[in-house]
Amino acid sequence: MKGRHPMAGSQSSLREANRARVVDAVKKHGGLTQVELAGATGLSAATVSAIVKELVAAGAVEVRNTVRSGRRAQLVTLAHRVGLVAGVVVGYRHLRVALADVSHEVLAEQVLPLPTDHRSDTSLDRAALLIVDLVERVGADLDELLGIGLGLPAPVDPATGMISVRGVLRGWDSVQVAQVLEKRLACPVFADNDANLGALAESTFGAGRELRDLIYVNVSQGVGAGLVLNGRVHRGADGTAGEIGHVQVDPAGRICGCGSRGCLETVVGCPALLEPLYPSYGHVTLRDVVRMTNQDDPGCREIVADAGATVGTVVAALATGLGPQRVVVGGDLAETGETFLGPLRDALRRRTVLSQAGGPDVVPSALGLRAELLGAIALALASTDLFERPDSTDDEGAGR
Questions:
Q1: pLDDT by residue (tens digit) across 256-282?
Q2: Residues in the chain with pLDDT < 50?
Q3: For the purposes of burial, counting CB atoms within 10 Å of the CB of 359, is it exposed (0-12), middle (13-18) or buried (19 or more)?
Q4: What is the four-CA torsion angle of 204, 269, 307, 359, rounded to 10 degrees?
Q5: DSSP assignment letter at 254
Q6: How many CB atoms lie within 10 A of CB 55?
Q7: According to the model, what pLDDT value does residue 4 have?
Q8: pLDDT at residue 13, as a whole number
Q9: Helix axes 5-29, 34-41, angle to 10 degrees
Q10: Beta-strand (E) ranges in the chain?
């Protein structure tokens, strides 16, 4: 009889591992049919069906009828009663917060303006208060909050959850950002760079959902990129992968906040973008430039097109090294459409070593200005143990 114990243990471990694969697939995509689950996990349809029945009986997932390709199917989602997650994105001038259930459905969200050079303590206090307000707004309790994804406009060290390059976000250096917010709300917090979160969102349920390799570029107040390689966000050893905003493009240019001279951000970041317009247009904001560009204002179109070409030269070098299938462009300037995307695409084609397939295509973000926020929600879900599962691991999460 003793000889059977290892076999029994192996079978139990295999069932638990298969169960974890199904749960993780549903967590990542928010909802899949059983046929889609079989494809996503590599398990047989019979195994998926048996696991789904177990999870339904345990109250872990819900099943409802849906239609796929004209045929009826069973859609599997995580049970709403499991809990809630929050997404927080701290920008240079705005704070965005959203509350979602475990099926990725956003239940409430809010945007709050921030002053220039806002302090970490006051901004995190505001984030905590907004989360509490949104939880109350949906009629839930704070103890239902399972995890929080936090996006920052700076590289984040995956090992520590701290900003890894001094000067990029002034006043936030040496702050254990995730831990500070975690103490305020008594809830796990997972921090990452905002462009990485945009890449995560676009690759999970956006313009790169069907792809294994892509570059996500965000051009708003600053500029950065998130990399998805072999289906996973690539952050680098210290979280600086994709920091194209600090690639030198003008050796005689201005000193950047990071301490280097002539970084891309000093050329196409918001202050540099707006400065040439002030003598003729007065005090304008980035949103004003986007609006006037879309109204065919020649001066604004010139500024935006030049920015697209400059960003394209840096993205081309990155694409040559990585060979992505697609470049997804988000942020405020992507809202100007081909005025920005066209020159970026042209620069990419001129400077990239083209394969027989013609190199990566360039498309706008499918999620728009909400990409980073939805990525923060996806990060919280991917990093949170919704169910206790022995021997399960998830390496998708970023620093805490």
A1: 988 999 999 999 999 999 999 999 999
A2: 1-6, 388-396
A3: buried
A4: -30
A5: P
A6: 21
A7: 46
A8: 79
A9: 110
A10: 32-33, 61-68, 71-78, 84-90, 94-101, 106-113, 145-152, 189-193, 214-219, 223-229, 232-234, 326-330, 361-364
Report DSSP state, residue 256.
P
CATH at 153? 3.30.420.40
Task: For residues 100 and 61, state if they share a domain.
Answer: no
Nearest alpha-carbon partner for 220 in 317, 319, 89, 352: 89
CA distances from 86 to 1, 101, 128, 146, 328 (A): 50, 9, 10, 8, 25
In degrees, to the nearest 5, what angle opens at C-alpha 145 toward C-alphas 113 and 151?
40
Residues 338, 236: one domain?
Answer: yes
In this structure, the chain runs to a length of 400
Which residue among 29, 55, 80 closes a domain? Answer: 80
Residue 142 DSSP class: G
Could you say which of 63, 80, 97 is where a domain stops? 80
Give the integer Cα–Cα distance in Å for 340 and 219. 10
Number of domains within the chain: 3
Q: Global pTM?
A: 0.80
Going by C-beta distance under 8 Å and a sequence separation of 6 or more, which residues neighbour residue 281?
Answer: 288, 299
Query: Side chain identity at 41, as an amino acid letter?
Result: T
**CA 2, CA 326: separation in Å to the nearest integer?**
55
294 and 233 assigned to the same domain:
yes
91 Cβ contact list (under 8 Å, min separation 6): 114, 153, 194, 220, 221
Question: Are 349 and 216 found together in one domain?
Answer: yes
Q: Where are the alpha helices (DSSP H) in 149-285?
A: 177-185, 194-205, 264-268, 270-274, 278-281
Same domain, 170 and 61: no
